[in-house]
Amino acid sequence: MDEATIRPATGDDLDQLCRLRLAFIGDVRHVDPATFDPAFVEATRAFFVDEMQADRIRSWLAVVDGRAVGLVSVVVADVPPLPGRHRVREGYVINLYVAPEGRRRGTGRALLDAALASADELGLRGFHLYATDDGRPLYEQADFVPDDRFLVRRID
Q: Which end of the chain, N or C, is more open, meaning fewer C-beta atoms within 10 Å of its C-beta?
């Protein structure tokens, strides 16, 4: 397999964005993405459409031989300024995924680097993410550190 080319995703890539996000979720949950409820698949597509139109998400694809084999996205959120940190946007890294045939070639790192390089363009003061056990070493190598100040309350 050739080395992946990393490029920004556009609205023309909607099918690829959805396919790779669903593959990511299937991989993490150990299920076949073909078994996902059609309403969930449609909600995923609507999320990308809405967030891209509002310019609240940026995504990058890893492409090999014309096929997208990897994805990373950054959801941009407006937040109040902090003393010494006047930028009012933060990035939430989601969906970092490389298909099995593209793994162990530096593709995940290249995708993450592309996302992190967007900080100035997007006016971000920082990034946060939820790491899978498999992804944690990559994020730690990129200077992400655990932060135990966060608490989470889920609403089902």
A: C
